[in-house]
Amino acid sequence: MEWYSTSLSSPSSSSLLNLRGSALTRRKFCKKFSHPSLSSSRLPKPFLQVHHIPHTLIYQQSPGNLSSKTYRATISAEAGKQVEKLSGPSPSKPVKSMENSDIVLVAGATGGVGRRVVDILRKKGIPVRVLVRNEEKARRMLGSDVDLIVGDIAKESTLVPEYFKGVKKVINAVSVIVGPKEGDTPDRAKYSQGVKFFEPEIKGDPPKLVEYVGMENLINAVKENVGLQRGKLLFGFEGDNYRQLSWGALDDVVMGGVSESTFQIDPNGDENGGPIGLFKGVVSTANNGGFTSIRNKNFSEPENLSAYDGLELRVKGDGRRYKLIVRTSSDWDTVGYTAGFDTVEGEWQSIQLPFSSLRPIFRARTVSDAPPFDPSNIISLQLMFSKFEYDGKLNPTFKEGPFELPVSRIRAYMKDPITPRFVHVGSAGVTRPERPGLDLTKQPPAVRLNKELDFILTFKLKGEDLIRESGIPYAIVRPCALTEEPAGADLIFDQGDNITGKISRDEVARICVAALESPFACNKTFEVKSTVPFSEPFTVDPANPPPEKDYNEYFKNLREGITGKEALQQQSPIPV
Fold first, then answer.
1. Contact (CB, 8 A) for 521 and 419
2. What pTM value is reported for the model?
3. What are 247's strand-pairing partners?
4. Which helix (H) or strand (E) holds 214?
5. 64-75 as b/e, with b when 16 or more CB fall inside 10 Å?
6. Considering only CA atoms, which of 83, 137, 97 is closest in space to residue 114?
7. End-to-end CA distance of the chain
8. Which of 294, 281, 241, 250 has the alpha carbon at shortest distance from 408?
9. Where's the NADH:ubiquinone oxidoreductase intermediate-associated protein domain (predicted)?
């Protein structure tokens, strides 16, 4: 086997960099590894040095233009469809559903909204993990059996990556602490009445540290586990992003065959004129052979793709059926989780292979007692063109001779519809302190006292911006003044940061949990209040409670891109 480190480091080279080894070298390799079991300790040669592609040779494509061209044909090899069509019986142990083990992290779980969120999630049977600063307080409030992380978002060193394994979604209810200057009761009775009823001051860490630095720390701690909406690039070219892998040919010479393949870079082979990888070769059934493949060098650190639903390949088809093999073990000759995919001759296609469609295969046989596929521990990828399917089935598109499969990228993807992975409890009013022409006498105390409270709303807005810029699917809930009243009042959802009023903490907690499961809430920023005026208390008759709300009816009317910052950006220039 020979390894290829493809590079565009020489602009004068031909458009295809031919890095294929000679047939003689391959036969030596076949002779050296006559035993059918390949040992990772006996690899024939180390990988060549990986070179970076010079920036001037990377095709520049704006995201807008790319998206209009890249998704013309999406093929999804769902289990029971394309993959099942040509395969043998399913494994006796189905792949474990990841959704059943998803954990929701609640940050700020001992606060007024946070503890209510925890209660709702538990009642729904959703696994919960809480991030708190005070373990004793948390266990007293939430129960001794709570799944708990002791950490402080203001202190990056306390957010150990190991703590967040298994977390797929986050509800962040952390907030800087505001309290009465004159002090409060042990159960914070004055605070619960609302800042309108006392002279406030910051207690503990300042807003910049909690709302901005802390937000950055929390996002960095959970990002790998909750994922990015655009997916995670494993190989190839996507806009101005590029990720290189070292690939090596693994052909039927290991069984005495004569097929051979290579992996090259074509600097101009992409549908938009940019670079691609090219899996090509000649396949033959002579000497009982009939397959060619390329496999990347094991990742130096396993790739954690647990936030995603599958792998997407962008390829130009040739009418043949190929396989993608994913390995979760660093052993050389081991089970590969495999899916076949069909291509259309001459067409660029985005082919989605859900993790649920991957079949545990060892030497073309289904391994019924293989462990469930673990997307958090991806070790290597392999592309194969073979005469053989699985369990005695044959590839109906197989034919001997030359073949080639251009590959512009391989990435992990989130399936549609995408729902928020990060729900944040912010505050109405965050854009108002700097808004021109605003009558501050009609605004809540936090707006009037923003400077005195160490720019609390300014840093809350900066923290929001970090979420919106992170690439994580999100929802930002901006409640008006929080109360201890029960949920159930009629609500007003708004955007643009203009409304004032009050809303129950119970209601906000319900909205946060509902947003986690709603595609209509994804990437939306909104304010919410009840229709009940401040001067009127809201009560509920326990014998005749109000009906539960379908929050999707509110989420459906929200729009992306509206934050209230629009009013700041439209300020007239100051006359000179």
1. yes
2. 0.80
3. 4, 296
4. helix 214-226
5. eeeeeebeeeeb
6. 137
7. 72
8. 241
9. 243-407
